Amino acid sequence: MHPRASVSAMSSAAWTLEQDLAFWRRAGITNVGLALRKMEAAGLATAVARVVDAGLRVTNLLGLGFDLTDRARWPAHQRRLIAAVDAARTVGAECMVLTTGSAGSMTWEDAAGALAEAIEPVTSAAAEAGVPFAFEHTNSLRVDVGFVHTLRDIVDLARRLRTGVVMECNACWAERDLAGTIAGGVDTFRLVQVSDFVIGTLCTPHRAVPGDGHVPLERILGQVVQAGYGGVFDLEMLGPRIEEEGYEAAIPRAVAALEALLGAVGA
Questions:
Q1: pLDDT 10s digits, 162-172
Q2: What is d(CA 235, CA 230) in angstroms, rounded to the nearest whole number?
Q3: Coil, helix or strand for 214?
Q4: 3-state secondary structure at position 235
């Protein structure tokens, strides 16, 4: 497998960790992103042991952020995420990723302040454990999981919070001056998520295998590489197209497409 390509467990969203592990073994997938919810469903300690035994390279561990409107629930989620940091350390994850969390009707600025307060114990634990930490920007329809919807804004927020950034190509590919944002923010990038989008799609998540849609991935990944990014490109594909094709067909096809793209851009 290309050393800069990875497959997120979210690309097989309906499968359990055990199903993922069995498929990755069959398909020769060695570089993976883990989903915290699948790890917890299996029992965190058990899941960590299974991943370590599988000998996988873990490029990231992905979870969801806080409900920033409900302070009473922050301590429980902080404990959960600190446990996840320890799991990330044990499996050798190259970064831990969170969405920014739901902000309800809060202003963007108030939400950013709340996030800074809520996340501090978690980022401190990550720093102590030596696990790089990054926030992901999300599609503007997914206000249930995040309040930051542009690459430019997540770079600014990450600098404020002293964290890294996950660049989600599916959420930023049509942004104004994307090349400029990439060049100015690449030092914050810890992961780049890759999938495609078909123009005319009216719901989310409804992603596609790279090459099946309209996202100019070769141009965008080329800009990322030329800006100096040296990290991993993680396939994160969700939605009806992937479900209808089936994971066992869609994921290997996507890996081949991503590896071809990385070759084309000199990654």
A1: 999 999 999 99
A2: 16
A3: coil
A4: strand
